[in-house]
Design brief:
CATH superfamily: Ribosomal protein L22/L17
CATH architecture: Alpha-Beta Complex
Number of helices: 6
Oligomer: single chain
Helix content: 25-40%
Order of helices and strands: EHHHEEEEHHH
Strand order of the largest sheet: 1-5-2
Distance between the termini: 118 Å
CATH class: Alpha Beta
Number of strands: 5
CATH topology: Ribosomal Protein L22, Chain A
Strand content: 15-25%
Length: 176
Amino acid sequence: MQAPTAVARFVRISPRKCRHVVDAIRYKHVDDALAILQFVPNSAARVVAKLIKSAIANAENNHRMDRESLEIIHVHVDEGPTLKRISARAMGRAYRIAKRTSHITIGLGESESEPKIGRRAKGVARVVGKPTKRGAKAEAPKKERSKKKPEAAVEEKPIVTTEQVESPKETGGGEQ
């Protein structure tokens, strides 16, 4: 059975700007993603929120899935065709303006009943379960280094005193 998806094609938003919004909602529960997008001050956020609602409707009607168990499993933004426009410049020149378009795809899936673990935590659990050379080296406790130098290594040298000879100016012997 294929996961429910929703696709928005030829959206007049730059793919680079749209990817910033999409990265904020990847692997989130659908209700959490909609709550996040509500406060994102970007025009792409409104398009992505509308697309998530469409994907939820597809999941409920076509795949008989429950909204409470839906989470975003994959999201990607592809580049669509670029609209080329010109801007008139001085001395009869024209500069080209590239108005970029995007194809946005959102796929939903049912979340597991297990507690949610972040992607980084899953990677750590995998390393702990199956130690490798790098993992075993990282798990070894590090020795604490003291910042004090050992006193036995530094030998004290005897202080040599020299007698100072007083000059006639200091003694005041040559007064005139």
